Amino acid sequence: MGEKETNKKTQNMAKAAGGSPVKPSGKKKNIWVFPAIVTALYAVLYVFYPSKTLSALSYAGKMATVIAPVLLLVLLFIFLFNLIDEKWLKKTVEESPIILQYLAMAFFGTLSHGPIYAWYPLMGQFREKGVPYGPISVFLYARGIKLSLLPMLALYFGAGYAAALTASLAVFSIIQGLLVDTVMKNNA
């Protein structure tokens, strides 16, 4: 997609959201300004507080190693999703029963990990390709179910509580999807 098409798409999305169209600045932004400023700040801080600066850098490195696999997974999903034909996806989504869409998105939401904002681009692409708001809401809500933390939840609160909480999150993710679809259809 060319820059001109991207700008037009951005303007159309802004109009659809009720805002004013975004005017492209025409200037190429330098993406290295922020990292250069952060690096300079760390260098200055290292002069005055070397141990605290090294500790902060160590913590940032650990966080990056935790976040990087999730971001790579999201990028992989985005790449794979770009390979799907939009017409086929829209037809499949429109023809499949809504409950099947909700169950699939609840399943994938439960399996997803990492920060929620990392999944917004993929959900945006789903929306652009015709997936309704309801299933997207189901995915985001179902992310509250953390399979990797279920054993710890059961250990601290008991298996009954863990099962009840997990089931209620799954059920309410579907209810939220229905509500969002209803509200969005009324606003359209």
Name a few traits of the molecule.
single chain; 188 residues; mainly alpha; 9 helices; extended
Condensed summary:
The protein contains 9 helices and no strands. With 188 residues, the chain is mainly alpha-helical.
Topology:
Layout: H1 3-16, H2 33-48, H3 50-82, H4 86-95, H5 98-111, H6 120-128, H7 133-142, H8 150-157, H9 159-187
Task: Report on the architecture of this protein.
The protein has 2 domains: 26-83; 85-188, no CATH class. The protein is extended and about 60 Å long. 13% of the residues are buried. It is built from 9 helices and no strands. 76% of the residues lie in helices and 0% in strands. It has 188 residues and is mostly helical. Residues 16-22 have low confidence and may be disordered. The chain has helices at residues 3-16, 33-48, 50-82, 86-95, 98-111, 120-128, 133-142, 150-157, 159-187.
Low-confidence stretches: 16-22
Which structural class fits the helix and strand makeup?
Answer: mainly alpha
- Spell the H/E element sequence: HHHHHHHHH
What's the rounded overall pLDDT mean?
81
Number of helices: 9
Kindly give the count of domains: 2
Instruction: Give helix % range.
Output: over 70%
